[in-house]
Amino acid sequence: MSLRQEQKDATRKRVLDAARELFDSDGYEETTVRGIARRAEVSVGSVFTTFSCKRDILNHVMQDRLEGLYAELDRVAPKLRGSTSDRLRSIFAIHYAFEAHRTNLFLAFISSAFDGALQDAGRPRRITPRLWRILRGCLSDGRDRGEVDAEADLDLLADLLISAYVWTYRLAACENADAEAMSKVMDRNIGVIAAGFAPRARPET
């Protein structure tokens, strides 16, 4: 690795470390690129040589942060036991427990998803695409086992689950709810959604 690349990587790390702390403490709206540069002790121009905007910085913060979690979910999801709804509950419980250590950071991430280009960035699957794929895989396995209706729209169901999951974070924002409290609400949401995707008898033709 060249000296220039080493310097670029070091700057990137400083920017992401500074951004992580500011987004967690100040939220998405209050954090600025200038503030991130000041905390990282680099120029604003140096920030923009690697990142296109504030949202891009936060996306990279979350990608780095969640990589280990999603790698673990990819590994354990196929081994989870129980019904499809039970497996979905386990997946979300793992996610809530992980995010409980940085709830404000995830709230900032949700805020960024609805900033600017709402039509594109605000789509549920674009908020947490790795989690969306894990959920869709769980639903697909459930359909193979006969627990999810054969005609169910799996993409739409995964979108619905992500939307319900993200919405529970209003409890953290407004009521300071912890991972256990949000998991209980999400468990009920999954029960309602599961009732909708359960196989149903169709009239004979």
Question: How would you characterize the overall build of this protein?
Answer:
The chain folds into two domains: 1-51, Homeodomain-like (Arc Repressor Mutant, subunit A); 55-197, Tetracycline Repressor, domain 2. The chain has helices at residues 3-30, 33-40, 44-48, 54-76, 84-99, 103-113, 118-121, 124-127, 129-144, 154-167, 169-175, 179-197. By secondary structure, the protein is mostly helical. The termini are far apart. The chain is built from twelve helices and no strands. It is elongated and about 70 Å long. 76% of the residues lie in helices and 0% in strands.
Topology:
Blueprint: H1 3-30, H2 33-40, H3 44-48, H4 54-76, H5 84-99, H6 103-113, H7 118-121, H8 124-127, H9 129-144, H10 154-167, H11 169-175, H12 179-197
Helix pairs in contact: 1-2, 1-4, 1-6, 4-6, 5-9, 5-12, 9-10, 10-12
Order of secondary-structure elements = HHHHHHHHHHHH
Output the CATH homologous superfamily of the largest domain.
Answer: Tetracycline Repressor, domain 2
Share of helical residues: over 70%
Compute the average pLDDT: 88
* Termini Cα gap: 68 Å
Global structural class: mainly alpha
Number of DSSP E strands? 0
- Rg over CA atoms: 20 Å
CATH hierarchy class name of the largest domain: Mainly Alpha
Question: Per the principal axes of the C-alpha atoms, what is the gross shape?
Answer: elongated
**Biggest β-sheet, characterized?**
none
The CATH architecture of the largest domain comes to Orthogonal Bundle
Name the poorly predicted regions. Answer: none
Number of helices: 12
Query: How much strand?
Result: under 5%
